[in-house]
Amino acid sequence: MKFQALLAASALFASAIGQATSAASPPGAVTVEPDQLRQKIQSLRAADHYWHKIVWKKSITEGLIESKRSHKPLFVWAFIDYPDQERC
What is the pTM of this model? Predict the structure, then answer.
């Protein structure tokens, strides 16, 4: 009995999935070619971010050496991951 109910449920589910994937696009939907979408995304991206020009160091020692050499301040970004906390 359970097998027949499971078989019937899976057949119903499969037919619903088949109908959902074969349905036409809703009225008013716009189809976009991948190349057009790629061009649109590229046009929305900022060409040059200021932080892309910063030479990031993984070691604080390297950062201190570079800071002293270039006479610029040292900026430290640190992240400590505590799994029990939901904040940054």
Answer: 0.35
